[in-house]
């Protein structure tokens, strides 16, 4: 399989605390940003100091066609609403034959939003859902633990 095939034909498998929530066809928002604070120094007009303050993690959005596994996410969302603590998640990028390409571990994951399908009698579109997760950082290979 070529790199181009892998980039096009990939699915994302979401697991929360070891419990699989199914495969998704798209994943966006995996990323982080180092927030910088600017400090001006009196008498130094040549530059402004850039000081790192914290790392900010963007929310992750996963989308897929509605499946039997779709009932799992609203159940988890309802548990969080009743006070269930944040969880640990893993997102695995896999080829169509199930071979692992790479994975990302997420700490302190909470569901932020679930968007269900839009139905229209005059449309033959596939019913899809999107979930959005917040997290407080990555873990695993390359992330320091």
Automatic annotation (TrEMBL):
In the record, what terms sit under GO molecular function? structural molecule activity
Pfam families per the UniProt record, alphabetical: Phage_T4_gp19 (PF06841)
PANTHER family the UniProt entry points to: CONSERVED HYPOTHETICAL PHAGE TAIL PROTEIN
Q: What is this protein called?
A: Phage tail-like protein
């Amino acid at each position: 399989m070529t790199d181009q095939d892998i980039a096009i034909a990939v699915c994302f498998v979401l697991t929360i605390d070891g419990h699989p929530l199914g495969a998704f066809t798209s994943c966006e928002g995996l990323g982080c940003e180092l927030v910088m604070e600017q400090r001006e120094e009196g008498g130094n007009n040549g530059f402004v100091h850039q000081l790192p303050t914290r790392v900010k993690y963007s929310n992750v959005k996963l989308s897929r066609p509605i499946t039997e596994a779709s009932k799992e996410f609203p159940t988890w969302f309802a548990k969080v609403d009743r006070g269930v603590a944040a969880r640990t998640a893993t997102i695995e990028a896999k080829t169509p034959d199930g071979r692992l390409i790479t994975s990302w571990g997420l700490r302190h994951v909470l569901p932020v939003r679930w968007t269900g399908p839009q139905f229209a009698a005059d449309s033959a579109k596939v019913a899809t859902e999107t979930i959005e997760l917040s997290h407080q950082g990555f873990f695993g290979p390359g992330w320091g633990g």
